[in-house]
Amino acid sequence: MITIIIKMGNISLFKALGSDTRIKIIKTLIKGEKHLSELAREIGISTPVTARHIKILEEAGIIKRRIIGNVHLLSVTTEAIENIFEPFIEEKDVKIRKNETLLDALKQLPGFEIKKIGDRQYITSIDGEEGHYIYQVDGNIPSIPINQYKPEEDVVVEFSKIAAIKKKKIRVKILDSNE
Fold it and tell me: In this structure, is residue 53 part of a structural domain?
């Protein structure tokens, strides 16, 4: 029997995200790398206060520091942003026999809807949430469809919904005819 752990799921992240100032720092650094004092000026707080916030963000893995001589450049780590919701992921254990596919494992679980297109099968809904899903096995995206993937040993399978991420918001204001 092969055991497959299907993960559908860090306290420091929530501490880091629990401050409006740290959210402002993240939003600023998403636009590009900044020096500590430049960042402090841009968000309107002192450099020592900014440094304390940066320390919390670094401990949470949200901010990374690149050092060139004695210049410290800060930027956001995209991996941390992607992992913010990790604690909420539902996890299940499923067992299959050797030579069975990951699709056979999914058939044991309610909530997965599969659509067949040609000789491939795709996950089109998980727990009623329709969309396009990709799967990873032990952190890697396989090159074969889920209905053909036959694990040789215990693996962790994770499913991600492909979703549009808001990157920019533009407010369009209508001018009065007098302006």
Answer: yes
